[in-house]
Specification:
The chain is mainly beta and 91 residues long. It contains no helices and 6 strands. The strands form 2 sheets. A 3-stranded antiparallel β-sheet has the order 1-6-5, with no helix packed on it. Strands 2-3-4 form a 3-stranded antiparallel β-sheet, with no helix packed on it. Strand 3 (36-43) and strand 4 (46-51) form a beta hairpin.
Length: 91
């Protein structure tokens, strides 16, 4: 029964899910290109741009909801200047 509801009304709901492993990166690792959010991972000595879906912030870290797996190497410094496929060196 929908007594009291009117056409055009809406509501918001938050649904808690089971906690999983959260992947977070420093804020400086996230690159914004137009309306896309990305990080650069390092694969075979080259930068690989990965589109990501951002979550919330935890201090200086940004949670990554999709597009990055735990344990991947992410470029933190100078990510804004990188191009996909560019050679990079790791310390």
């Amino acid at each position: 029964d929908a007594k009291g509801l009117r056409s055009g009304q809406f509501g918001r709901a938050a649904i808690a899910t089971a906690a999983g492993i959260a992947v977070a990166v420093p804020a400086g690792a996230v690159v914004h290109r137009g309306q896309l959010d990305a990080v650069f991972t390092v694969r075979d000595g080259r930068a690989a741009m990965r589109l990501v879906r951002l979550g919330g912030r935890d201090g200086d870290a940004i949670l990554i909801r999709a597009g990055l797996a735990a344990g991947e190497t992410v470029v933190v410094a100078g990510a804004d200047a990188l191009i996909d496929g560019q050679r990079v060196t790791t310390p």
